[in-house]
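As the next step, I wrote out a protein sequence along with its fold in token form, included below for the reader:
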Amino acid sequence: MPPRPDPGFPYHRIVDDLRSEILSGNLAPGSRIHSEWSLASKYDTSRPTVRRALAVLKSEGLVVTRQGQGSFVRSLPPVHLSMGGMHLRGDRRRSGRPGLIEQLEEQGHHPELVLDAVSVVKAPDYVAERLDIEPHADVVLRGELLVVNGDLMGTSDRYFPLAIAEGTAIAEAQPVPGGILALIEDPDGPIRRTMERSVDEITSRLPTEREAAKLGIPRSLPVSRLLRTGYDTTGTAIEVREALGVADRYEFRYEANFR
């Protein structure tokens, strides 16, 4: 028996029912939602009302639309990231490949870090503070895109003091052979530093208009922002990484040793 139509705001009932079905798992990620005609008939309402309801779910990040195909439950690939020291230890450091990429491959994903841009910029205040350099000093910025299974999952901006990165492969607009960590720690290389620790700061917030457009998400969908400052054995800050990802696509796991 179809639900009794709400004479005031019938789209509320559609939104509530579909949201409950999605969050409960009855409508699985990637599954197709009933057509506008079908929903309009079920709820005894018009197609514009159905479209309005679907727009609400899309703004919440629960639904995506594909031209000519209809509306689908947004797929949420389970990405689990270990934020402890595991991905920087021993074999991971010697492999010359980013620990993030290796973690995702171990989970059965097909990840790729795409170099987006390399340039010399003025350090934002929060970067200058963490690198302990003068405000608006020049830094090398390497922008990267994280693509997982063909979908853009996040962005990463990596800032390096100009005094450290200038004249090295870090400042070149191409991938760094063997990885940036290996370059920094190469005893015969131009930097010759040993990385010892990092400090992570994680916040969740709504994206800016520019961030939402780049990630292809509505501005109502929260993002997670990771600021990671890497230090060498002398306590000098070598890098600040600002990573941004859609909040519900990640699960962060921290490991801490008490001794």
Strands lie at 63-66, 70-73, 79-82, 111-122, 138-148, 151-161, 195-205, 223-232, 237-246, 250-253. The CA atoms of residues 3 and 245 lie 38 Å apart. The chain has nine helices and ten strands. The longest strand covers residues 111-122.
